[in-house]
Amino acid sequence: MTTEIKVPSLGESVAEATVAKWLKQPGEAVEIDEPVAELETDKITLEVNAPATGTLAEILVQEGANVPVGAVLGRIEEGGAQSAPRPPAEAGPSLSPLARGEGLFSPSPRLRGEGRGEGQQALQRSGPAVRKLIEESGLDTARITPTGPGGRISKADVIASRVPAPHPLAPSAPVGEREVRVRMTRLRRRIAERLKAAQNTAAMLTTFNEIDMTEAITLRERWREAFEKKHGVRLGFMSIFVKAAIVALKELPAVNAEIDGDDIVYQNHYDIGVAVGLEQGLVVPVVRDADRMSFAEVEQAVAGLARKARDGKLAIEDLSGGTFTITNGGVYGSLMSTPILNPPQSGILGMHKIERRPVALGDRVEIRPMMYVALSYDHRIVDGREAVGFLVRIKECVEEPSRILIDV
Questions:
Q1: pLDDT tens by residue, the chain, 408 residues
Q2: Up-side HSE of residue 35: CA atoms within 13 Å toward CB?
Q3: Is residue 25 part of a domain?
Q4: Which residues contact 116 (CB under 8 A, 6 or more apart)?
Q5: Which residue segment(s) compose the domain that 134 sits in?
Q6: Do 247 and 158 lie in a common domain?
């Protein structure tokens, strides 16, 4: 009996995906629900699981091909293992040798599963986009030094390993040999399209303020151990900013609104997107109904979504429907920036690096931990007075977190 492997539902408004990688080859045994392929959509990379136990009989769509929802990717023959030839490339659209990862590099034995060790373990811990880039490059993972969190291989590690160190006496290599052309992923293309669309359609402005983080740091240091012991998650600044943003959004609802044609839609719920930077691009998973959550529940939700993002396990539902976004460039050392709106939202809050600097307090000067914050907003909905007032309210709540608890 033959069972078809089909493209699953990709979520609302997503009708097409790209076959990023086949995890099994024809003739290999597969178990039911075992991942056999990876698909890349505009938003996420997801795995396609085997619908039955048996042998992968044939692959009908090659890597790099675009496929709609419901398309047949391959077939599984139920029963014992059998050899099956890989189908010709005409099953999918024609790709150049460069797009297929051929010509520049040849696959290494380690990437074909012939080697094991620390490099292979680091490869398994890395994200789908990094694994795909390594395979396309044909690099030996034993020669890549992982610098990512948890021993993961980052995109920068792969790129660094692909550029050979020049011999001291050798002449400089031609420019053409020092370049590697990699096709832009669907996620990266989608990010580019959305950011450019935001600039083209919204009347986007940014306003700034600064926050004295003394009280927030004191609060975190005082309750850090007890909080983590009770709730199993670290007490960070994100929950404070999420809660402060909700206070400000309730007082200034235009920042939580969006334009739909000739209408302004005011949202009476608070689904806060939290930007997460990955090797393959920026994703914004959403904390649903954050106004109904405690500080601990916000931290747990943010940590869980960030973990799913790093592991490539975000679902479409995790990324859709946000009403307001918070992004923290401070984790990368950014002192100040102008974040770009996440359409169709009308506001995004940018957090930045905490920097100790002199501050005038009355008639004296003290060294205080200060953070610049930025609000980018759609001037078609939000007036300057509302934008400035929003940041002032954020400043008040973060500088005195007790305001959030007693609602003043």
A1: 888 898 887 765 567 888 888 988 888 888 888 888 888 776 677 788 888 898 998 898 888 888 888 889 999 988 654 444 444 444 444 444 433 434 333 343 433 444 445 666 666 666 666 776 676 666 677 767 777 666 777 766 776 665 544 444 445 445 556 788 777 777 777 778 777 888 888 899 999 999 999 999 999 999 999 999 999 999 999 999 999 999 999 999 999 999 998 999 999 999 999 998 877 778 899 999 999 999 999 999 999 998 888 887 888 788 888 999 999 999 889 999 999 999 899 999 999 999 999 999 989 999 999 999 999 999 999 999 999 999 999 999 999 998 888 777
A2: 12
A3: yes
A4: none
A5: 2-169
A6: no
10-31 in b/e burial notation, b at 16+ Cβ within 10 A?
bbeebeebbbbbbbbebbebbe
Residue 42's H or E segment, with its range, is none
Q: Facing residues of 364 across strands?
A: 361
Looking at the fold, whether 201 and 350 belong to one and the same domain comes out as: yes
- Tokens of residue 395, six digits: 């400043």
State the first-to-last Cα distance of the chain, in angstroms, to the nearest integer. 67
Calpha distance 344→263 (Å, rounded): 13
**Could you tell me if 379 and 204 are in contact, meaning their C-beta atoms sit under 8 angstroms apart?**
yes
Q: Give the whole-angstrom CA distance, residue 23 versus residue 79.
A: 20
Residue 344: asked if its preceding bond is cis (omega within 30°), the reply is yes
Q: Distance (Å, rounded) from C-alpha 304 to C-alpha 50?
A: 26
Residue that has been written with the tokens 């200060």 in this structure: 370
Please tell me the total count of domains within the chain.
2
Which two three-digit tokens encode residue 362? 């009355």
232: left (phi over 0), alpha (psi -120 to 50) or beta: left
Q: How far is CA 50 from the centre of its chain?
A: 26
Q: What is the CATH number of the domain that holds 70?
A: 2.40.50.100
Token readout for 86 is 């890989």
Q: Distance between CA 241 and CA 306 in Å, rounded? A: 17
CA angle, corner 17, sides to 14 and 19, nearest 5? 165
Catalytic positions, written as ranges: 379, 383
Q: Are strands 354-361 and 281-283 parallel, antiparallel or unpaired?
A: unpaired
